[in-house]
């Protein structure tokens, strides 16, 4: 029986990196990087405040190894007194290959299956499915070393969509359209590698706002 009680299992708090200049300009970023917008410190303060209000304390912090995620994670490490940030490539955003820095409107016009087909492999890059598989494997692996711990992960919108759709048993192609705000805070509960509960503590994702996902919830078992 699936419940909201993680009974000594792992709790994962999943957030997004800071708002970059490329995000604001509507350009594909992928494995590239871009300077932060000035508002980013307010976003971090908001997320940290929400976590404190919810009584969350952190045992470990992981991030993508891209600068925008790692720098955001370091701000949370300072705020919560966590001594280090462990940055890993598995939590990177999708590799858009040759499309990096292109305007999103242009990409949509040239690749009609963009954010519709999770198996579309971008030129010299990867597919959303490939990104989902590597990031989900990493999140699942944490359950072996962090039983009874609360772990913060700072990653990217694409990774967040993939993790939500996998662990909540949602259809992936339909999930690619949902927005992930910069003040998103996903609260996942695990028993072993099985997700047993999900909530959102910050600004609502498109899964909740536009997809009709009711929270808090106990998701369907994932095969």
Which SSEs are present, and which pair or pack?
Blueprint: E1 11-16, H1 21-25, H2 40-53, E2 60-64, H3 67-80, E3 86-88, H4 104-110, H5 128-142, E4 150-155, H6 157-167, H7 172-175, E5 185-191, E6 194-200, H8 206-209
Helix pairs in contact: 5-6
What labels describe this entry?
223 residues; 8 helices; alpha/beta; Rossmann fold; disordered N terminus; 6 strands; 6-stranded mixed β-sheet; globular
General description of the model:
Helix 5 (128-142) crosses helix 6. The chain is 33% helix and 15% strand. The chain starts with 10 loop residues before the first strand and ends in a 14-residue tail after the last helix. The chain has a single domain (11-209), classed as 3-Layer(aba) Sandwich (Rossmann fold). The protein is an alpha/beta fold and 223 residues long.
Q: How many strand elements?
A: 6
Q: From the 3D coordinates, which CATH architecture would you assign?
A: 3-Layer(aba) Sandwich
Taking all residues together, what is the mean pLDDT? Answer: 92
Main CATH class: Alpha Beta
Share of helical residues? 25-40%
**Lateral strand order in the biggest sheet:** 3-2-4-1-5-6
The SS-based structural class is: alpha/beta
Give the biggest beta sheet.
6 strands, mixed
Number of domains: 1
SS element count, helices:
8
The succession of helices and strands, N to C, reads EHHEHEHHEHHEEH
Distance between the termini: 14 Å
Give the percentage of residues in beta strands: 15-25%
Low-confidence stretches: 1-6
CATH superfamily: Phosphoglycerate mutase-like
The shape, in one word, is globular
Q: Any idea what the radius of gyration is?
A: 16 Å
């Amino acid at each position: 029986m699936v419940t909201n009680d993680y009974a000594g299992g792992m709790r994962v708090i999943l957030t997004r990196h800071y708002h970059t200049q490329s995000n604001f300009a509507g350009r594909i970023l992928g494995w590239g990087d871009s300077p932060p917008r000035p508002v980013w410190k307010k976003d971090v303060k908001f997320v940290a405040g929400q976590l404190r209000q919810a009584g969350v304390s952190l045992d470990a912090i992981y991030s993508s190894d891209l600068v925008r995620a790692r720098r955001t994670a370091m701000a949370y490490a300072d705020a919560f007194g966590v001594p280090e940030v462990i940055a890993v490539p598995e939590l990177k955003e999708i590799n858009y290959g040759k499309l990096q820095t292109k305007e999103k409107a242009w990409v949509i016009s040239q690749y009609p299956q963009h954010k519709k087909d999770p198996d579309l492999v971008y030129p010299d890059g990867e597919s959303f499915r490939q990104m989902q598989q590597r990031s989900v494997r990493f999140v699942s692996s944490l359950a072996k070393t962090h039983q009874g711990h609360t772990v913060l992960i700072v990653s990217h919108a694409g990774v967040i969509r993939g993790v939500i759709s996998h662990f909540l048993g949602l259809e992936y192609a339909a999930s690619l359209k949902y927005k992930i705000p910069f003040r998103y805070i996903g609260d996942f509960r695990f028993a072993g590698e099985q997700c047993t509960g999900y909530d959102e503590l910050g600004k609502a994702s498109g899964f909740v706002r536009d997809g009709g996902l009711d929270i808090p919830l106990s998701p369907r078992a994932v095969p």
